[in-house]
Amino acid sequence: MSLCRSLTAIVLGLALAACAPVETQQAEVKPTENCPVELVVLGVGQDAGAPQIGNPDDPAWKDPSKKLYATSLGLLDHENGKRYLFEATPDIREQMQIMDTLLPYDGEGPYIDGIFLTHAHIGHYGGLMFLGRESMGAKGVPVYAMPRMKAYLETNGPWSQLVELENIELIDQSEPNGLFLDSLSKIADFEADIEVSGFIVPHRDEYSETAGYLIINTKTQDAMVFIPDVDQWDSNVELVSSVSDPKMKYAFIDATFYDDNELSGRDMSKIPHPRVTESMDLIEAAGDDSLKDKIRFIHINHTNPLRDKNSAAYKAMTERGFKLAYRGEQFCL
Ligand SMILES: [Zn+2]
Ligand SMILES: [Zn+2]
Q1: Model-level pTM?
Q2: Is residue 29 part of a domain?
Q3: Could you tell me the residue range of the domain that residue 198 belongs to?
Q4: How far is the CA of 274 from the centre of ligand 1 (A)?
């Protein structure tokens, strides 16, 4: 029995509680100077975040700073007062509060100037419910979705009510199959020098296809890619060649599971998602250490040992030169 567990047992006189410290690596956001277009990480958790139902010993119940919000990125156009979200998560209230802190609503147009959805799994679109009449009663928030995702929202309640009441305005986007930087077409017009493109990635597609997004600064051609959920790296979504492109500055990629030892009692060979260890191996095999600086792991399951900065997994990841994204991490585009 570890000292930690012994103390827990003595002090509480209860059955042993899991005592591993868990870190969400959150940081206070601060307004960035001289940054016309900014990207901020709003959450790094898997769909259901953490702590989850049925995990009464998760340290995040006692320490809210250890909570994981579902994965989301915010894009802020400071010059034109526009705010965009990648994903509408069940944590959208807290995540919009972070956005409001960095760039308050200017009173013009919709409260959120655009939401880019990847797919119809709860952590990626469930937060749309907060735009409806039971909540903020949003007006005309543009929501970018691929054809199946759009049709799903239009034809299934309660989402269809958001469309009928014009809380959201669904915008169809093209569906290039895979991430090929030169072949993607922009799906949104921005006043700033920014383009966003979507592309299809392989994933469990019950209700919708699954998208990834590319964000490009059209002045510098610097690009960032967001792939929160993918079943595997394949020839359409090829990790190393995408990250090796000199235009690619940052890649926010699926880190749901660290390795195959994570879910005890389950045969993880049946469970998709590239493991973090596999993605690190692929990047290292390319033989260019500068690629590591571009990677930000995101979308971690509540069981992922990377939650704990003191875990062997976290130490191994950082020793190999890789980074986990953290809530509040800010990038200037
Ligand atoms: Zn997910
Ligand atoms: Zn998913």
Answers
A1: 0.90
A2: no
A3: 34-332
A4: 13
